[in-house]
Amino acid sequence: RFGFLILMLITIFSTVQSVSIVDAQDTNQLSGELNLKPIILKSRVISDTKGVDPTTVAEIARIETSKHFIVSLGKEDIDRKFLEENGVKLLSYLPYNSWFVSISNKNVVDNLEKLSIRSIHVIQPEDKLSQPLRIDNIGSWSINENGKIVLAVKFYDDIKLEDAKATMGKYAFKIYDEIDTINSLVLAVPREK
Question: What confidence tens digit (pLDDT) does each residue in 84-125 have?
Fold first, then answer.
């Protein structure tokens, strides 16, 4: 039980590595717009460029209800309500002035300047995993009797646990527990997944 708690905490707190100290000179504003900065994740660093690449445009075009992306914002003083009214919900902060977001508006690409969005990027599978999972450094205490990895998967608040359970069920992952307070599922997954 103690080992499971440690894995759960690792999973929850290591989804994104933040750089907590930002030098004021690094965020030098010119005409209210920030200089281009890389987007820093634990899994990779994204060179920030203005605009949206064709792969991301295609992903946005396939949005049915909403989908998660990474965005870089053009200024710090963003109006969250205005973004949400235009189909962009900020989920969690990334250095430097970037966010994991939920996009529900296919036309967001046509309104980048209006929304002060500098760039949009697709979230890669490795961006969703904690480092121990990415490098296959799993403690024996988190392996169940069938050789599967038991872990806690935390979902953003815009994902309903019922929907998450249905998706996990499609992959035949065994669901051990549901933690409503942190919008998480405890499940067993094959090591190769």
Answer: 999 999 999 998 889 999 999 999 999 999 999 999 999 998
Compute CA distances 131 → 62, 135, 151, 162, whole Å: 30, 6, 13, 27
On the CB side of 56, CA atoms within 13 Å amount to 18
- Number of Cβ within 10 Å of residue 178's Cβ equals 14
Q: Check if the beta carbon of residue 130 is closer than 8 Å to that of residue 15.
A: yes
Exposure of 135 in the CB half-sphere (CA atoms within 13 A): 6
Buried b (16+ CB within 10 A) or exposed e, 65-95: ebbbbbbbbbeeebeeeebeebbbbebeebb
**What average pLDDT does range 31-60 have in this prediction?**
80
* Residues 186/179, Cβ–Cβ less than 8 Å: yes
- Token pair 């690409």 in the structure block, residue: 109
> What are residue 189's DSSP bridge partners?
149
SS3 label, residue 73:
strand
Q: Please give the span between the terminal C-alpha atoms of the chain, in angstroms, as a whole number.
A: 23
Q: What is the DSSP string of 104-141?
A: --GGGGGGHHHHTEEEEEEPPGGGGS-HHHHTT---GG
Give this prediction's pTM: 0.73
What are the backbone dihedrals phi and psi of residue 100, each rounded to the nearest 5 degrees, phi first? Answer: -80, 135
